[in-house]
């Protein structure tokens, strides 16, 4: 009985709805479809809000990025918008939670991080090697510091992916468990619905914040490589 309950609890994170097809992964193309179009003569309120958000995020990222590489900010803004729309759509019932899987998150983080690392090694090899030993490190600890710095460098894409997945999974599980609790205690229905709505609002803000954190950390890694 407990095994069946756990399978039902985690089935919303299953990308396959049968043994042969995995059409839930097609959801990754939905944010591209719902992007507001700019071919209208008079822009709508949605498009105006979208452009305002883009301008605000560009100014935020411009502070971190160097002046010579500010043209690359659009990559990180696009990544943030994509993750944010995916997170928000995953809060809709019966919608597959795409960003809760390490497969997609590792694709987004590992590819960009690896390209930054290759660029850094190719353009600034000595700078890359010098960063492996922090300034004023004791001589007898230098070998260990190189190992620690390499490990911290390698786990960066993993920490980005795990952070995003863990936050999405925990939030959805809390909402699901609270929904099961509401169905078992009808007498506490008004209080439980109020609590669930508060948690849903918290999940909406968390979805936006996590997309911002994911993108801002990647642009910090990009700035370090330059």
TrEMBL record:
It is a multi-pass membrane protein. Coiled coil: none annotated. GO terms for cellular component: mitochondrial inner membrane; proton-transporting ATP synthase complex. The chain crosses the membrane at residues 20-42, 73-96, 102-122, 134-155, 175-195, 202-222. SUPFAM superfamilies: F1F0 ATP synthase subunit A (SSF81336). It holds the Pfam family ATP-synt_A. GO terms for molecular function: proton-transporting ATP synthase activity, rotational mechanism. InterPro entries: ATP_synth_F0_asu, ATP_synth_F0_asu_AS, ATP_synth_F0_asu_bact/mt, F0_ATP_A_sf. Keywords: ATP synthesis, CF(0), Hydrogen ion transport, Ion transport, Membrane, Mitochondrion, Transmembrane, Transmembrane helix, Transport. It is found in: Membrane; Mitochondrion inner membrane. NCBIfam families: ATP_synt_6_or_A. Belongs to the ATPase A chain family. Mitochondrial membrane ATP synthase (F(1)F(0) ATP synthase or Complex V) produces ATP from ADP in the presence of a proton gradient across the membrane which is generated by electron transport complexes of the respiratory chain. F-type ATPases consist of two structural domains, F(1) - containing the extramembraneous catalytic core and F(0) - containing the membrane proton channel, linked together by a central stalk and a peripheral stalk. During catalysis, ATP synthesis in the catalytic domain of F(1) is coupled via a rotary mechanism of the central stalk subunits to proton translocation. F-type ATPases have 2 components, CF(1) - the catalytic core - and CF(0) - the membrane proton channel. CF(1) has five subunits: alpha(3), beta(3), gamma(1), delta(1), epsilon(1). CF(0) has three main subunits: a, b and c. This is ATP synthase subunit a.
């Amino acid at each position: 009985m407990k095994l069946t309950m756990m399978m039902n609890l985690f089935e919303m994170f299953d990308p396959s709805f049968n043994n042969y097809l995995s059409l839930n992964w097609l959801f990754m193309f939905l944010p591209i479809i719902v992007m507001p179009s700019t071919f209208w003569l008079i822009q709508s309120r949605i498009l105006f809000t979208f452009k305002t958000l883009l301008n605000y995020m560009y100014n935020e990222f411009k502070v971190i990025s160097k002046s010579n590489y500010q043209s690359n900010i659009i990559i990180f803004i696009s990544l943030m918008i994509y993750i944010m729309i995916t997170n928000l759509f995953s809060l809709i019932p019966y919608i597959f939670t795409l960003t809760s899987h390490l497969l997609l998150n590792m694709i987004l983080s590992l590819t960009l991080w690896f390209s930054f690392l290759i660029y850094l090694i190719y353009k600034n090899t000595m700078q890359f090697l010098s960063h492996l030993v922090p300034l004023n490190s004791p001589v007898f600890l230098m070998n260990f510091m190189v190992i620690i710095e390499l490990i911290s460098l390698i786990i960066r894409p993993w920490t980005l992916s795990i952070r995003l997945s863990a936050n999405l999974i925990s939030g959805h599980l809390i909402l699901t468990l609270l929904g099961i609790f509401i169905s078992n205690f009808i007498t506490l229905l008004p209080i439980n619905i109020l609590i669930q709505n508060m948690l849903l609002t918290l999940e909406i803000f968390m979805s936006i914040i996590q997309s911002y954190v994911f993108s801002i950390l990647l642009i910090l890694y990009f700035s370090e490589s330059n």
